[in-house]
Design a protein that fits this description.
By secondary structure, the protein is an alpha/beta fold. The protein is built from nine helices and ten strands. The strands form two sheets. The chain has a five-stranded mixed sheet, sandwiched between helices. It starts with a strand and ends in a 22-residue tail after the last helix.
Length: about 350
């Protein structure tokens, strides 16, 4: 059976469309929104307006690049949540309207499930069961993945997400938003042992990052009293020290979960999985622990519609279609099948 799906992602500040044919991604277009840089973070209202501007051209380009005519589509998938309500509304309404016009079904996809399923876009694909550390701007989770659509969050952050830890510390250091990629770059020239930031004490497989942000704030404020140029002079060392602490917090919990559960197939996903230190450290840890590690290609780490299409493919095979009455869910826990 041939399956052709158009997928739309608009949960935060990237407008993306992808086309999948028979389990293969033929096109994946992403329009980033530069406007948020001026504000030092995503402004929800501006994000919705930009999605509204971008969605038609992004979908057009994706269809053109794939060579698939819209009349040949079997279904339209969209991110139903979690995410920003106004942003989700743009993708949801667009998908519903287009599907209605073409008289084809719609598929509602959970954004966090899609980040995990991004691992099935390309080889090597993980074997079940595997653990996925999903680290993004809004979430930090350890997910036990039993099957394509059978996942359980076994640990998560109690406050800030790992991406927020990067972005908020970056803001303190006057780096542009999003600061994750900037810190990654600067850290390469710095000494990760220059400054010691504390490790939070949290039970089981949960995380906490708000204390780290506060300790960097107090540390920097104290140093600035003695030297107003402290940040400029030590920027690379601060970035390297913060980054290495974030990575060590993430990997310690992931290692504990893998050991306790006896799972040896381990993946990382989400925007922060683009971080070069996290990527190299998980490979080293995997070699030491004899794990099979899975690290996504860069274009599938940050938000993209290819992962939405991949998740939709498995839902299509199960005929798991949504109703035209489906509305976005700003909060939607993984494993919650409610629609
Ligand atoms: O998954 P994503 O694109 O959007 C959400 O669903 O949140 O993740 C965005 C997050 C931002 O916090 C950004 O700073 C972070 O991913 N990020 C990185 C890197 N690239 C993106 N953090 C650290 N190092 C990177 N190279
Ligand atoms: Zn995401």
């Amino acid at each position: 059976m041939s399956v052709k799906i158009l997928a739309i992602e608009s949960s935060c500040d990237d407008t993306s469309a992808a086309v999948l044919v028979d389990d293969k991604i033929l096109a994946n277009c992403v329009a980033n929104q530069a406007i948020h840089k001026e504000w030092g973070g995503v402004v929800p209202e501006l994000a919705s307006r930009d999605h509204e501007k971008n969605i038609v051209p992004v979908v057009d380009v994706a269809l053109k690049r794939s060579g698939v005519s819209k009349n040949k589509l079997d279904a339209i998938a969209f991110t139903r949540g979690p995410g920003l309500m106004g942003s989700l509304l743009v993708g949801t309404s667009f998908a519903k309207a287009m599907a209605l016009a073409l008289e084809i079904p719609i598929i509602a996809v959970n954004h966090m499930e899609a980040h995990v399923l991004a691992h099935f876009i390309e080889e090597p694909r993980p074997a079940f069961p595997f653990l996925c550390l999903t680290v993004s701007g809004g979430h930090t989770q350890i997910v036990l993945v039993r099957d394509f659509l059978d996942m359980e969050v076994i640990g998560e952050t109690r406050d800030d997400a790992a991406g927020e830890a990067f972005d908020k510390t970056g803001k303190l250091l006057k780096l542009p938003y999003p600061a994750g990629p900037e810190i990654d770059k600067l850290a390469k020239q710095g000494n990760p042992d220059a400054f010691k930031f504390p490790e939070p004490k949290v039970d089981k497989y949960d995380f906490s990052f708000s204390g780290l942000k506060t300790s960097v704030l107090y540390f920097v404020q104290k140093q600035l009293k003695n030297d107003p140029d402290f940040i400029e002079k030590n920027l690379a060392d601060i970035c390297a020290s913060v980054q290495s602490r974030i990575v060590s917090i993430l990997l310690k919990k992931l290692e504990k979960a893998a050991t306790d559960l006896g799972i040896t197939h381990i993946a990382i996903a989400g925007g922060v999985s683009a971080n070069s230190e996290l990527r190299s450290e998980i490979e080293l840890l995997g070699k030491r622990r004899d794990w099979h590690t899975y690290i996504p290609a860069f274009q599938y780490c940050t938000d993209n519609a290819a992962m939405i299409a991949q998740a939709a493919y498995y839902k299509f095979l199960k005929e798991d279609f949504a109703d035209q009455s489906a509305v976005p869910m700003a909060r939607w826990s993984l494993g919650d099948r409610d629609r």
